[in-house]
Amino acid sequence: MRPRSAREKSCNSKPIAAKESFKWIRALTPIGAAAAQCPNTRIITLADREADIFEYLLEARTRGLDVVVRAKEKNRRLEQQVQPLGMHMHLRPRAGTIALEVPRRGKQPARTAELSVRSDALTLPPPLAKPDRAAIQLWAVLIREEQPPPEVKEPLEWLLLTTVPVTGLVDAVERVQWYAKRWGIEVFHRILKSGCQIEERQLATADRLEACLAIDAVVAWRIHYLTWLGRATPDLPCTVAFDDDQWKAVIVFKTRQPPPQQPPPLRQMIRSIAQLGGFLARKSDGEPGAQNLWRGLQRMDDITAAFRSFRTAYAMPP
Predict the structure, then answer these.
(1) What is the model's pLDDT at position 201?
(2) For 114-123, what is each residue's pLDDT tens digit?
(3) For labeling, which of 58, 153, 250, 296 is most exposed (least CB within 10 Å)?
C-alpha cells in the first residue's frame, strides 16, 4: 500500500462539515423535507462517484432516504469479509444479464450493451480514523460488460451502493435502471450550464438568481424534452411542440418555398431546427443532440419573428 500524501492526511483530519464534499450531506435535508411532504411519492436520490462518502451513506441510511450511489472506493473494507468491496462483488455468482442502451459519447455511437448482474447485501464498517461511527447495512449491485465490441475501449462497469434492499435479479435490474437516468440528468445540467449560461449570470441578489434559474430550468427542460420526444415519438405531427408560425417559418427559410398544407413529422422538424444550430444530418450522425437543438431554437425564434413581420407587412395569409 502506498503511503498517504500530506494532502490526504490533512483532508482526512478535517471534520466532514469543513470539506467541500459536505454539500452532498447538506442536500439530504431538502430531499428529506420533500419526501415528508409527498408521502405517496417515492423519491430516489442518484449520485455519482463524488458522493461515495461514508458519512453521506450513513446519513441517508439514518434518515431512511432511498439513495443509489456509484462506488468510487472499491478497496474499502467489509465486515466479515476477507476481500475488499470490488473484489468481493466480482466473486459473487452472476444473477443474470441486462441489456442497457448506452448513449453516444464523443465519436463512439450509441449502442446496446449486454451486462452481467451481480448483487449482495453488505455491511460497511466505519473508517479506521472514525471508529465511533456506526456500521452501515447496504446493498451492492455490480454490472459489467463481459464481452464488449472490439471498437469499445472502455467496457461499461458500474458498482452501485444503495440503501434500498436488493433481494434478487428484478430488484438489481431496477436499481441499475434508476441509475441509468443519470444520463438524462447530466444532459439537463449541461444544457443549464452551457446552453442557458447560468454560471455567467451576474445578478446582485440571491432572489434574482433564483428567479432567473427557475426560468432557465424550464427552458433547459423543454430542450431536453424535445430531444427525447423526437426520438421516442418521431412520427407525431410537429404541432405537438411547435405552433404554426414556427414550423412554417423554418420550412420557408430552408426551402425558399411556401410552406406545405400539412405540418411535417416531429422528427423532421427537430432535425431541421438542429441543422440551424450546426447539425449536419449525415447518415452517420444519428439523431441531433441537445447542443445543436438549443442553438437551432435560438435561430428559430429570430426566423419566426422575421416571418411574422413580413407576413404583417405584406398582408400575407397565415
Answers:
(1) 85
(2) 999 999 999 9
(3) 153
pLDDT in tens, 12-42: 667 788 888 889 999 999 999 999 999 999 9
CATH number of 9-180: 3.90.350.10
- 288 three-state secondary structure: coil
Model confidence at 1, pLDDT cuts 50, 70, 90, reads very low
pTM of the model: 0.78
3-state helix, strand, coil in the chain (%, to 5): 50, 15, 35
- Inter-axis angle of helices 182-190 and 290-313, nearest 10: 50
Per-residue pLDDT of 206-227, as tens digits, reads 899 889 999 999 989 989 899 8
Residue 69 C-alpha cell reads as 450511489
Arithmetic mean of pLDDT, 171-183: 93
Per the CB < 8 A criterion, the answer to whether 123 and 136 are in contact is yes
Find residue 112's DSSP bridge partners: 101
Q: Where are the alpha helices (DSSP H) in the chain?
A: 6-13, 22-37, 54-63, 85-90, 169-180, 182-190, 206-232, 244-255, 266-276, 290-313
Nearest 5 degrees, angle CA 163-CA 164-CA 170?
A: 140
Tell me how far CA of residue 164 lies from CA of 46, 66, 184, in angstroms: 12, 6, 22
Whether residue 53 contacts residue 11, with contact meaning beta carbons closer than 8 Å, is answered with no
Cα four-point dihedral sign 71, 74, 79, 81: positive
Report yes or no: 167 and 178 within 8 Å, Cβ to Cβ. no
Tell me how far apart the alpha carbons of residues 92 and 131 are, in angstroms, rounded to a whole number: 28
Annotated domain spans of the chain: 9-180, 197-313
3-state class of 107 per DSSP? coil
pLDDT at residue 5 tops 60:
no
Q: Which CATH class is domain 197-313?
A: mainly alpha
